[in-house]
Every structure is written in C-alpha cells, then in structure tokens.
C-alpha cells in the first residue's frame, strides 16, 4: 500500500466536507493501480468499507464518514475502477463482475482482512451484496443505503439495441445513464454540487452494463445463502430505486433485515438525512458488536 496524500479537487468534494481523507493506492485485478480514501479513527473501534453508486464517487460519503469517525469508525472509501480517483482510464468501464469482485478481494487482503462492516450506497449496494455473497469471511454486517438491487430507471429500447451491438465489438462504447441530478436530492446546495461535480459519471460502457446485469443474476441465484445481519435504508420517494423490488429480493434472506424508511427522502439520504442515517448505522453496528 503506498503512502498517503491529501491531493484532491475541491469542486469534487460535497458541501459539509471537513476532511478529504488520506488517499492511498493498492494493486487491483490485473495489476491495475487503484486509489481510495481513508478517514481514520484513532483508535478504531469499527472498520467500515464503503462502495459508492453508479454516478457518484467515494467523496460523496465524506461528510458522513467524518461524522462516523466521531463514534470510532475508520472508513475506507473505494473508488470503483473508471470512477472518481480512478477515472483516468476508460471512465465508466468495468470489464466484468469477476474483476470488480477481485478488486475488493485484493483490497481486503492488503488491509490484512480485518473484521469489516460493508456499506453499499445505490448501485454500490448491488456490488456490496455481491461481495457479501462472494467473500463473506470476516464481514460483520451489510448496510445497504437506497441500494440499486432493483431499479426504476432503464435505457430505451434503441439504447439497449446499441448496447448489444457495442458488446459484439468489444463493449467499450459509452451510453448515457437515465439519471438526472434532481433524482438525487431537492436540497439546493447538494443539487448544485451534483450538477457541477466534475467526477460525476454520466456515461458507462456497454461492458459496465453487462457487468451490472451479471451481478443481478449472481445475487438472484445466491441471495438466500446470505447470512449477515442487514440494515436496509430506503427513501420513501425514491425515483431511482424500486423499493418494493429491493425489499422483495431481500425477503429471501433468512436473517432478520432491519428496515429504515426515510419517508420524505428521494434518494441521497447521505446528504439530506445524514445525522439520522449515521445514528442508525452506529446503533446497528454497536448492537452487533455487543453480541
């Protein structure tokens, strides 16, 4: 793991950020160097691994991570390959589900496989669920924040046809995501940030879309085998996530799923309802650690 740095682009940091975190790197699948952020708690009572959404990047969780640090959480915020700190090569690309899962596996190995709580937000909730199924060792819990397990948004039929054609030619053509800033939040300062964010990912490759579908298939096949305690956050007015579909999918899990619904939120509760979300996470994790 390389030595850290605090280099960042201020415009890519959301309102309320008090610490951009320490930036470090590790060798991901295929030898690809991947960067991530760390917000340390000294001493660390809990270790939290954060996986971000499809358009967002690790910095969107920095204000929440700083608040969690006050309760003893060290948070590792991974930027997916093709996103955020790792956008320099093929933005919006993911070669396969296997590669994304191996990236997380290699990161955990470099950490020394500490006991982790795994948190996935939006599309990152899909990846986090797949990670929990693929590599459950030393995971203490799964926290899903408005998870992209089922979506209310989709590409047009024409776009889907073009995705298939692109896949036949290697799958590197990029397609615009059917998500607008107003679907995340109505809070002016956060909406302004999202609109101006230079790292917001608005297009993904055909390979990424196929990877996303492969994760869906994997989760559908294996979800009943998930044995972790789960904390599920849903936004009551979410235009992106199919809340009923996500809840129905998780109903196959034999463990009790603790559900928290933010009735008036539309999606980005890490911005609009941060204090309540952090409090719920702290209570959930402390309860698990006391067992």
Which structural class fits the helix and strand makeup?
alpha/beta
Q: What is the architecture at the second tier of CATH?
A: 3-Layer(aba) Sandwich
- In CATH, what is the class? Alpha Beta
Any idea what the CATH superfamily is called?
Alpha/Beta hydrolase fold, catalytic domain
Distance between the termini: 33 Å
Cα-atom radius of gyration? 18 Å
Low-pLDDT parts are: 1-8
What's the tally of helices?
9
Instruction: Provide the helix percentage.
Output: 25-40%
Order of helices and strands: EEEHEHEHEHEHEHEHEHH
What percent of residues are in strands?
15-25%
Number of strands: 10
Strand order of the largest sheet: 1-2-4-3-5-6-9-10
What's the short version?
This protein is an alpha/beta fold.
Blueprint (SSEs and pairs):
Layout: E1 22-27, E2 33-39, E3 46-51, H1 62-69, E4 73-78, H2 97-111, E5 116-121, H3 123-134, E6 139-145, H4 157-168, E7 174-176, H5 188-196, E8 203-205, H6 206-222, E9 230-235, H7 243-250, E10 257-262, H8 269-272, H9 274-290
Parallel strand pairs: 3-4, 3-5, 5-6, 6-9, 9-10
Antiparallel strand pairs: 1-2, 2-4, 7-8
List keywords for this structure.
single chain; 291 residues; alpha/beta; Rossmann fold; 10 strands
Your description of this structure?
With 291 residues, this protein is α/β, with parallel strands linked by helices. The chain has one domain (16-290): Alpha/Beta hydrolase fold, catalytic domain (Rossmann fold), CATH 3.40.50. Helices cover 35% and strands 19% of the residues. It has helices at 62-69, 97-111, 123-134, 157-168, 188-196, 206-222, 243-250, 269-272, 274-290; strands spanning 22-27, 33-39, 46-51, 73-78, 116-121, 139-145, 174-176, 203-205, 230-235, 257-262. It has an eight-stranded mixed β-sheet with strand order 1-2-4-3-5-6-9-10. It has a two-stranded antiparallel ribbon with strand order 7-8. It is globular, with a radius of gyration of 18 Å.
